Amino acid sequence: MKKLVLIIAMGMFLAGCAGVKQSEYMEHSSHYKTWSHLGFSWWGFKNVTAKAADTSTAEKWWGISYARH
Description:
Number of strands: 0
Number of domains: 2
Oligomer: single chain
Largest sheet: none
């Protein structure tokens, strides 16, 4: 029974690793683009200001933006 649980856990782990590779998540240099992006993601999202929106656009926090301006 222990071997079966271990085999299932190993299979799930390997499936998760394959998913991470396909999403290209690991190819990013970091999770947050800048320190201001980190601060916004932890605390600033509760009170979004025009300044935060301008900073996010200037620093390209969200990658490619398809929004119409």
